[in-house]
Every structure is written in C-alpha cells, then in structure tokens.
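Hi P.,

Sorry for the delay on this. The queue was packed all week, but I finally got your sequence through. Input first:
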Amino acid sequence: MKEKLCYIKPEKLKLQDMVLIAMFGAIAIILGMYPFTFMIGESIKITFSQISNTLVSGFYGPIVGGFFGGILDIIKVFVNPTGPFFPGFTISGIVNGVIFGLILYKKAISIKRMLLAKIISSVIVDILMNTYWLTLLYGTDFIAILPMRLLKTAIMLPVDTILMFLIMSRVAAFFKKKNYTT
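Then the structure:
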C-alpha cells in the first residue's frame, strides 16, 4: 500500500506553519543540550538535534529546510555553545537541510528513502564538510581524525535512520489526522 504524501507548500506558509517550525527549532536546541549531547574529544559530537532538521526539511522542502538548518546553527551557538562559532558549520546546516528536503519533500515516507537521505548527508556533510571544518578550526590533520568520524557515522547511521523514520512517520500521521497537510 502506497503511503499518502505529507508536505506543506513553502509558498503557502501560514503563521501556524511558522510557529510549528519554531517549535521544531526549540526541540532541536533542547536535544542539542546536555544530557542529550555527547562529546568524544574535539572532533566527535553525538546529538539527536538532527531530528527536527529532518522533519522541517521533509515537510517544508529544501528551501525552508536549508534556511532552518543555517539559522538554527547560529541560534544554537548563542544558546548552548559547545565550541566557537564557525561559519562552515552553518553552511553544513544549510546543505544538510537541502539534502533532506530534496530527498524527502513531496515523497512517501519510507525507511529506504530516509536511509538514502542519511547516507548522502553523512558522506557529504558529516564526513567531508564537517571533518574539513574541524581541520580548519582546530588545526588537526584531515586523515588523522577521519577514522573516528567514520566510526561515529557508521554507528549513528542506522540509529539516526530508524529514529528519524519512526518520528517522521508518527508526525506525518498526526498531521494527516488533524488535516494539517495540503
């Protein structure tokens, strides 16, 4: 049985949509704070704040998802700094939102699609971009920190994929029940 699509048209954002996006932002900030974030050295950060980014990108599309990812990165630096502000991570947040939006927006929610989005995001943003930003920020060698970042990505990939799929499916079902989709 093909699942009905669940999305909101970004050109028709209403006040209710903006409030919901802000609520997802607040959830992301909370999930990015202690005790929901674990740091392993300077180069490994395990957090679940990506869930909100995935929801916004999947329901509102790559443009809104990109803006959300970038703005949220800046807000998180001021609300709960875990290091210095670095614009590279803001770019990563934008790219991440665009990737998830391109793959999930206006598409049926499936574990395969979520896994595809997470793999592409992990390779482009987590492994390549963020590792490079860390080398610029801390002066470490790319190859030196790459193995730990690959291990972290390999461990978190199935966890994030399943968690994001389950949460997005439940939120989409709630939206449908409340007639909140277009």
